[in-house]
Each structure stands twice: as structure tokens, then as C-alpha cells.
């Protein structure tokens, strides 16, 4: 068992990179770091964020080696963990993912519906490339992957890298559980034990208890029935109006099944008409972020580089960063921590496709995640999940085979798309917009 670790952050030019670097430095007591490397395929983004993070690390932890590079061999040689969060096509393509479907009266979203399908068709090659670099230069390393759309990326790595040490993760349940803890007056989401099942961005909590085993669902359901997921505490990452609206909408998601608590992403599938009516086709979430988070992070990086000091800097490191460090600790020190991860079903959900990539509680140790059995699921969720997982599998098959037919089927099957003709119109425009990223479709 190593006592100090080498971590590479792939997508080192990501808006989340400084927060994760900060979180790694703040957790050295439980996760000792020997070296942090940043890797990106965009030299300009990597250069600016890399230099800012280099100054940050050298000032606070001069004993930690730090580098940033666009050279895969330098980035991936002799590492223990690769923390991946790439965005193939950047926000320029996310904006198209969101705006093209809206032109046809269909939900425009980063990871859901046609936008998520388009993003998935771009992401698969990028993530597989990172896995191959890692295995070429550090065969024993683990990849902890945030790169979205996690559902499609997870299905692609299941099919195309079945033996790779990659764990696909999502921090949405982590964020919502933080809200649950706030609603309940608990100090932390870790004061709860949860049972949850679904696909990524498509799941439900079925049981939430405190560490003494007391049922916390009744108190939560009472709050959610009236206020959705809105709570007293403002969350830095979710102060944007679009996030406030999302948390409010949880009330209407809860109405569909008062036996469970929903993942917020279900709103795009249950209320697509409402979402389209409340979207601005000329100013979507991608636009909000470019003038928001992306500008804030890069302005802060320029501030640090100009002053050659990070002492006045403030980068946010919230649940997103904590979660991935928790996961690295669980693997490094065999902690058997209980975490919601995206894993092959294999019976965890007894009456659901064994090969589906599902999001369920797992015990995590040195050999990776072990899913807990969530039992049988009701017809409502089973029907929804079967439709959605078929979409995700068709996208991966379309990417593998270069199949226009299967991608058209995937769009037609999505609960967010009203007809095969609308699906085809959106598909043809997405093909043109993604000419530099997707495999050729025949
Ligand atoms: N799984 C989750 O719950 C979760 C939560 C938050 C963010 N994310 C994901 O994390 C990723 C990063 O988000 P962001 O907003 O910081 O994105 P960003 O656009 O700010 O940064 C992404 C970085 O990835 C780099 N990149 C793109 N393709 C690459 C490739 N093939 N190889 C190496 N680098 C590449 C880009 O140059 C860019 O610097 C996105 O995929 C986002 O959806 C996931
Ligand atoms: O619109 P964005 O880019 O702000 O958020 C899209 C992502 O939303 C979720 O991640 C949240 C996360 O839940 C929260 O803990 C915090 O870290 O903010 C993140 C970004 O808002 C979702 O899980 C991701 O998959 C999305 O990419
Ligand atoms: Mn997510």
C-alpha cells in the first residue's frame, strides 16, 4: 500500500480543476499527495489554469510536486489516479447541444435528450483516449471519471473497455443529499444512509435513515411536497436562477411518485413542455456559464498569475471536489465507504437489464465498487428506465457502427422527442454542427 500518491487531472483546463486541486491540498492528512499533474489537449486553457494552480500549490504546499502539460506521456506515466473531467467541444458545442433542439420545440440540455446524445457522440472518443493513455503509461492506475454525459460514457466504457479500472461518477445525488441534510438540520449528508436506484441523471431515493436507523423520509417528503428541494442555505454552485428553478421543480417530480424522492434531472423527461416553455432559445445554460463560472475561474487565474501569488485567491471547492477525493481515499485505503456510483447492474436491481449501467449505492475498497442489492423496482420506474437505457445503448451502438439509423432510433425513442420526424430534423442539424467531432454516419 502506497503512502503518497501521484494524481493526474485530465481536463486540466476545466473550470472545476482549481477546486479539485484545492480539495486535494486540503485533504493531505487523509489522502497524502506526492505529485499533482494537469493534462489538457488545449494548451491555452491548460497554460493559464496550470500556471495559476502551480503558484497556488507552491505557496501552500511546496513539498508537493506540480506540473501541467499537453503531452500524454508526461501526464500519464507512473500515476496512481487519473481524475477526468473533459468537455469535448467546450462550451461552444454545449451551446449548440442546448439551442438546436429548442429550435424544434424540444428540451435543450447538456446531458439529457438530443443535447446529451450529441454530447455523448463527442465524448466517447475523448474518454476512451484517456483510458488508453492511462493504461499505456500506468497500467495499475484508477480513472475516476466525471466527464459527461456519464450515462453514455459509462455504457461506452462498459462495452469497449470492459476490464479497465474506470469508475464513472456523478455529483448530482451528492448535491441533493446536501440539501436533504440542510432541510433536516443535519451537519452533513454523511449523517444519512440512503437507498437509491436509477440511471445517471435518472434516479430515485427510496430510503433515507440516520445513523441510528430512524426513518428520515417522512420529514423530507413533507418539505418536498411544499417546497421542492429549496432550502434555507444558499449553495455557491447553485445560486444561478436556472438552478433555483430546478430545485423548485422537484415538487412536481415528487407528485408523480410520493413513495420516492426524485433526481432533479427527471424534470426534462416528465415536463419537457414546461422546460421548453421556460427556456430562452437565445440564452441557455451554456451562455450563463460562459459569463459566470468560466469567466470567474479564468479571471481568478489571471489575477493569480499577474500577482504571482494565490494568497488573495478564492476558488470554490464544494461537494463536487469532496466526492472525488472521498472515492480516491476509499480505493487507496480500502475504506469500504458507501457511495452512489455508476456500475454494471448485474442484479443490483433485480428486475432490470443486467448489462445496464445503473446508479446505486456501492461499498468501495481497493478493488473498486461492490454494488448493494436494491431489489425489484416498480412498473413506473422500470418502464421509464427501460426506455432511457435503450436510448443510451443505441447511442453507443450508433457510435461504434457509424449508424445513422440507430442514432435516429435513439432520438426517436427519447422521452423528450415527440416524433420520428422531429428526431430526424434535429439529427440532421446535429450532424452538421458536430462534423468535427462525431464519427461519420452512414
Ligand atoms: N459527472 C458529473 O456529475 C459532473 C459534474 C460537473 C461537471 N461534469 C463534467 O465535467 C467536465 C468538465 O466540466 P467544465 O464545465 O469544467 O468544462 P470546461 O469546458 O470548463 O473544461 C473542460 C476541459 O476539457 C478539455 N478537453 C476537452 N477534450 C479533451 C480531450 N480529448 N483531452 C483532454 N482534454 C480535453 C478542454 O480543453 C477543457 O479545458 C464536463 O464533461 C462536465 O459535464 C460532470
Ligand atoms: O449547468 P452546470 O454546468 O452548472 O451544471 C451541470 C452539472 O450539474 C450537476 O453537477 C453539479 C453538482 O450537482 C453540484 O454538486 C455542483 O458541483 O455543481 C455542479 C454543476 O452545477 C450534474 O451532476 C453534472 O453532471 C452536470 O454537468
Ligand atoms: Mn452528473
DSSP strand count: 12
Query: What is the subunit arrangement here?
Result: single chain
The ligands bound in this entry are:
nicotinamide-adenine-dinucleotide, ligand LEZUNG72, manganese (II) ion
SSE succession: EHEHEHEHHEHEHEEHHEHHHHHEEEHHH
N→C terminal distance: 50 Å
Helical residue percent band: 40-55%
- Structural class label: alpha/beta
What is the mean pLDDT?
96
* Share of β-strand residues: 15-25%
Strand count, sense and barrel status of the largest sheet are: 6 strands, parallel
| Number of DSSP helical runs | 17
Strand order of the largest sheet: 3-2-1-4-5-6
Shape: globular
Uncertain stretches: none
Q: Any idea what the radius of gyration is?
A: 21 Å
Structure characterization notes:
- It comes from Dryocola boscaweniae.
- Keywords: Cobalt, Glycosidase, Hydrolase, Iron, Manganese, Metal-binding, NAD, Nickel.
- One of its GO terms (molecular function) is hydrolase activity, hydrolyzing O-glycosyl compounds.
- Belongs to the glycosyl hydrolase 4 family.
- This protein is globular.
- Helix 6 crosses helix 15.
- The chain has 442 residues and is α/β, with parallel strands linked by helices.
- The strands form three sheets. The protein has a six-stranded parallel β-sheet with strand order 3-2-1-4-5-6, sandwiched between helices. Strands 7-8-9 form a three-stranded antiparallel β-sheet. The chain has a three-stranded antiparallel β-sheet with strand order 10-11-12.
- The mean pLDDT is 96.
- Bound molecules: nicotinamide-adenine-dinucleotide (NAD), the ligand O=P(O)(O)OC[C@H]1O[C@H](O[C@H]2[C@H](O)[C@@H](O)[C@@H](O)O[C@@H]2CO)[C@H](O)[C@@H](O)[C@@H]1O and manganese (II) ion.
- The ligand O=P(O)(O)OC[C@H]1O[C@H](O[C@H]2[C@H](O)[C@@H](O)[C@@H](O)O[C@@H]2CO)[C@H](O)[C@@H](O)[C@@H]1O binds next to helix 7, helix 12 and helix 14.
Amino acid at each position: 500500500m502506497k503512502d503518497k500518491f501521484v494524481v493526474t487531472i485530465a481536463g486540466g483546463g476545466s473550470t472545476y480543476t482549481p477546486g479539485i486541486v484545492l480539495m486535494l491540498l486540503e485533504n493531505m492528512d487523509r489522502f497524502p499527495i506526492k505529485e499533482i499533474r494537469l493534462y489538457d489537449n488545449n494548451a491555452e486553457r491548460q497554460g493559464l489554469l496550470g500556471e495559476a494552480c502551480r503558484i497556488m500549490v507552491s505557496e501552500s504546499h511546496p513539498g508537493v510536486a506540480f506540473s501541467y502539460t499537453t503531452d500524454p506521456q508526461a501526464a500519464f506515466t507512473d500515476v496512481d489516479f487519473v481524475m477526468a473531467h473533459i468537455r469535448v467541444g467546450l462550451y461552444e458545442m454545449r451551446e449548440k447541444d442546448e439551442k438546436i433542439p429548442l429550435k424544434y420545440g424540444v428540451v435543450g440540455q447538456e446531458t439529457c435528450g438530443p443535447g446529451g446524445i450529441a454530447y455523448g457522440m463527442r465524448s466517447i472518443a475523448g474518454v476512451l483516449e484517456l483510458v488508453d493513455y492511462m493504461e499505456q503509461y500506468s497500467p495499475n492506475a484508477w480513472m475516476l471519471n466525471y466527464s459527461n454525459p456519464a450515462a453514455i460514457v459509462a455504457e461506452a466504457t462498459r462495452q469497449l473497455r470492459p476490464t479497465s479500472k474506470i469508475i464513472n461518477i456523478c455529483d448530482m445525488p451528492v448535491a441533493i443529499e446536501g440539501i436533504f441534510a440542510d432541510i433536516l438540520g443535519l451537519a452533513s449528508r454523511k449523517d444519512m444512509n440512503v437507498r437509491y436506484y436509477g440511471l445517471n441523471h435518472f434516479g430515485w431515493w427510496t430510503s433515507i435513515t440516520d445513523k441510528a436507523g430512524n426513518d428520515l423520509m417522512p420529514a423530507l417528503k413533507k418539505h418536498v411536497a411544499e417546497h421542492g428541494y429549496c432550502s434555507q442555505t444558499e449553495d455557491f454552485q447553485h445560486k444561478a436562477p436556472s438552478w433555483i428553478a430546478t430545485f423548485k421543480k422537484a415538487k412536481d417530480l415528487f407528485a408523480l411518485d410520493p413513495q420516492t424522492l426524485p433526481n432533479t434531472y427527471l424534470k426534462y423527461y416528465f415536463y419537457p413542455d414546461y422546460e421548453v416553455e421556460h427556456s430562452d432559445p437565445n440564452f441557455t445554460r451554456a451562455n450563463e456559464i460562459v459569463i459566470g463560472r468560466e469567466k470567474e475561474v479564468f479571471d481568478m487565474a489571471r489575477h493569480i498569475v499577474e500577482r504571482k501569488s494565490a494568497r488573495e485567491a478564492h476558488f470554490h471547492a464544494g461537494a463536487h471536489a469532496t466526492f472525488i477525493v472521498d472515492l480516491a481515499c476509499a480505493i487507496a485505503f480500502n475504506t469500504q465507504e458507501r457511495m452512489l456510483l455508476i456500475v454494471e447492474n448485474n442484479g443490483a436491481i433485480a428486475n432490470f437489464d443486467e448489462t445496464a449501467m445503473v446508479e446505486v449505492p456501492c461499498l468501495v475498497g481497493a478493488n473498486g465498487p461492490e454494488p448493494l442489492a436494491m431489489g425489484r423496482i416498480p412498473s413506473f420506474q422500470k418502464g421509464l428506465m427501460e426506455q432511457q437505457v435503450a436510448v443510451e445503448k443505441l447511442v453507443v451502438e450508433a457510435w461504434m457502427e457509424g449508424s445513422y439509423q440507430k442514432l435516429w432510433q435513439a432520438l426517436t425513442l427519447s422521452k423528450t422527442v415527440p416524433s420520428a420526424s422531429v428526431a430526424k430534423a434535429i439529427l440532421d442539424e446535429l450532424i452538421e454542427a458536430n462534423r468535427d467531432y462525431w464519427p461519420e454516419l452512414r
